[in-house]
Design brief:
By secondary structure, the chain is of the alpha+beta class. The chain has a domain of 45 residues. It contains three helices and five strands, in the order H-E-E-E-E-E-H-H. The strands form two sheets. Strands 1-2-3 form a three-stranded antiparallel sheet. It has a two-stranded antiparallel sheet with strand order 4-5. A hairpin with a 3-residue loop joins strand 1 and strand 2.
Length: 113
């Protein structure tokens, strides 16, 4: 890293800030133009999380995945390192999260009309 007061560090900070502002402006424009299309595409594609498994993205933008229901193990019951939880069951995504009918998201009402 350049020393304080070094012209290179001041140029780098200015250049980085300027690029950040430009990139943010481009992202804002893309979201305004294509945000709805991107969101619709994401809702059509199923998700596959390495921890929670298969799921989907709901109309309100929330992810709906199978959720593990587990209990902490006692130290004596742990059989190996990082064996902290005992999986009791899994809860399907439609039961694990609040129902769409209880959502306050304005997009839910648009999709249901």
């Amino acid at each position: 890293m350049a020393a304080k007061g070094d012209a290179r560090s001041e140029y780098h900070i200015h250049y980085t800030d300027e690029n950040h502002v430009r990139i943010k402006a481009v992202i804002d424009q893309l979201q305004a133009r294509f945000g709805a299309a991107v969101m619709a595409g994401m809702q059509e594609m199923p998700t596959d999380d390495p921890i929670f498994g298969k799921g989907s993205i709901r109309v309100d933008g929330a992810a709906s995945t199978t959720s593990p229901y587990s209990r902490s193990r006692r130290r004596k019951k742990s059989r190996q390192p990082y064996d902290y939880y005992k999986l009791l069951s899994t809860v399907p995504g439609d039961k694990a999260y609040h129902p769409l009918s209880a959502s306050e998201c304005s997009q839910v009402n648009v999709a249901n009309d």
